[in-house]
Design goal:
CATH topology of the largest domain: Glutaredoxin
Shape: globular
Helix content: 55-70%
Distance between the termini: 52 Å
Strand order of the largest sheet: 1-3-2-4-5
Order of helices and strands: HEEHEHHHHHHEEH
Length: 214
């Protein structure tokens, strides 16, 4: 083998090795990015509406309790839970919009109820009564406190959690995660960390069916 051929083969070998390194580094970077996105889509302390023993998919909704679109989607999500609740983990993330006067208060009320194990009852209460309190331009703290009383919560503890810095930071973190994931409005849905843009219940159901088949 001539010296020129040996040099050429060496160059090819080094080039291929470099490509392999780039590919491995790229794959590692993609994996790290996917892991980072997954951690922002669902946090360990994100409230769950269902926790099946063997979850085959995760459904996440970034929502605003004062958002009419979220109120309209609420029955569809409930129907999905009835159909897929034994296979799918349903997760809620808080995303109160600045234009909704009482959205942050509602989120804090639900988060405070969650501290006493009453996340779902307060979640339901907010949507079941949304038409009566949504779009009002006056503070509705007293109304939300009355909901807590109806649920039989420890009111001193509820008040402390409702006004706590920890609750505010929890909601702020959800909003920050949502923005990092590209959430610009509500409701916004993710299935297995993938953003979906449904236009109907059938779109949501089909997306879940597809995720369950994977």
């Amino acid at each position: 083998m001539s010296r020129t051929v040996k040099i050429s083969l060496a160059v090819v070998f080094v080039f291929c090795l470099a490509l392999t390194v780039v590919f491995v580094v790229s794959r590692a970077g993609d994996s790290e990015q996917a892991a980072a996105q997954a951690s922002m889509t669902v946090r360990d302390d994100s409230p769950r509406l269902s926790t099946p023993t063997e979850s085959k998919a995760t459904f996440v909704e970034f929502l605003d309790f004062e958002c009419e679109g979220c109120g309209a989607a609420y029955p569809a999500v409930e129907q999905l839970r009835q159909t897929y609740g034994d296979q799918v983990t349903f997760v809620v993330r808080y995303f109160p919009l600045p234009g909704h006067f009482n959205a942050d208060r509602a989120a804090r009320a639900v988060a405070a109820a969650a501290e006493q194990g009453q996340f779902e009852p307060m979640y339901r209460k907010m949507f079941d009564t949304q038409r009566s309190w949504g779009e009002q331009r006056v503070p509705l703290d007293d109304l939300f406190f009355s909901y807590a009383q109806e649920l039989g919560l420890d009111m001193d503890r509820f008040a402390a959690d409702y006004n706590s810095q920890a609750t505010r930071e929890l909601i702020d973190r959800d909003v920050a995660d949502g923005k990092a994931l590209g959430v610009t409005g509500t409701p916004t849905f993710f299935i297995n960390d993938e953003l979906i843009k449904p236009e109907s219940y059938d779109d949501l159901s089909s997306a879940l069916e597809s995720a369950l088949r994977q």
